[in-house]
Amino acid sequence: MSHGIIRKLFNKALLEYTDTTGMPVFLDNVRSFDQNGVPIEPPSQGEYLKAHLIPADTYDDSLSGDHRVYTGMYQVTIVTKYGVGALQSESIANAIQNVFRLNRRFVDPADTNPIEENRFTVQVTSPVTVPEGRQLGVQWILPIHFEYRADTN
Question: Which pTM was predicted?
Answer without folding.
Answer: 0.90
